[in-house]
Design goal:
14 helices; 0% strand
Length: 307
């Protein structure tokens, strides 16, 4: 049993499956998306901060270098703050997308982000953009068009998909900003980004709608704690612990278990309808993203964040 839990592939698969179920829990929290994003960041920061502190204390007691030593977060503070803002906005738009369209449509549109990164990286980081990348971009774009139903879906669905694509843009921004951060890596970077999200979301929530946390009943509290502690805090710890022991390419491929789980839950658990054209569109989006990863020789993307 211990070998099963310590297997990095098992940990990352488990993390992706948990990530894929988040929509089911968010739907039962009667709070605005901005507040859910804020409390998610707060709860995850507390848990991950506790884990980092525990590791640092244990390593210091063993006479080893403490976790986080050698970090110089001040060098990248503006980027960390910007990535935290993008991460918070990413969550808000994704949670809003769940309210207007199906979980599968919102999730698949959200996973347009890796292709956006492929398109922008040659401009910002002078990375290679060849025929394969071009084909992947065209394929995923056609997939988005099919996902919207080419006019066959309702206005509400289109709004949800648009919000999902907006979340994808912010997710891509987080990835791109992370590529420029050099002094902090791994779970330490995630903690700082969560804290930055908290700092920016508190005044935003206060100015836009106020705080309604005390209106939650026991069930709402349960779902909120699960989203913050399990879907974010614990799952990010599983994710980053697995990244240390897996090749970056393999970790990237396994990360697509997340949208697959979300789509399966949408269809078979929630009973949400999905048209054949949307299925084809989803396959094109995920297929293009996976194809871009399979033949890629990029290093371990431990700084990138999932949902």
């Amino acid at each position: 049993m211990k070998q099963f839990i310590t297997n990095p592939r098992v940990r990352i698969v488990l993390a992706m499956v948990v990530f894929g179920t988040i929509a089911l829990f968010v739907a039962h929290i009667p709070l605005p998306s901005t507040e859910i994003a804020l409390y998610r960041a707060v709860l995850a920061s507390l848990l991950i901060g506790g884990v980092i502190t525990f590791r640092r204390t244990r390593k210091s007691a063993d006479g080893k270098t403490s976790v986080g030593s050698g970090m110089h977060p001040r060098r990248d503070l503006p980027l960390l703050l910007l990535s935290g803002i993008a991460m918070g906005g990413n969550w808000i738009l994704l949670f809003e997308a769940y309210k207007y369209t199906t979980v599968s449509a919102a999730t698949l549109s959200y996973y347009f982000a890796p292709v956006l990164v492929t398109l922008v990286c040659p401009i910002l980081f002078r990375e290679h953009f060849g025929l394969r990348q071009g084909i992947c971009f065209v394929g995923s774009t056609v997939g988005v068009v099919l996902l919207t139903g080419v006019g066959a879906v309702s206005g509400s669905d289109l709004r949800g998909i648009a919000l999902g694509l907006g979340a994808a843009c912010l997710y891509a921004a987080v990835i791109l900003i992370n590529k420029a951060i050099r002094s902090v890596s791994g779970i330490d970077r995630t903690l700082l980004q969560f804290l930055a999200a908290v700092v920016t979301l508190i005044p935003y929530v206060a100015l836009t709608g106020g705080f309604h946390l005390l209106t939650l009943d026991a069930v709402g509290w349960g779902y909120l704690l699960c989203v913050g502690l399990v879907h974010t805090g614990i799952t990010y710890c599983l994710y980053f612990s697995a990244l240390r022991d897996l090749p970056g390419q393999e970790a990237a491929i396994l990360s697509y278990i997340d949208p697959l789980t979300a789509v399966l839950l949408s269809v078979f658990v929630l009973g949400e309808a999905i048209a054949p054209a949307q299925i084809i569109g989803g396959v094109l989006i995920l297929g293009a993203s996976i194809a871009n990863e399979i033949k890629s020789s990029r290093p371990n993307r431990s700084g990138e964040n999932n949902q």
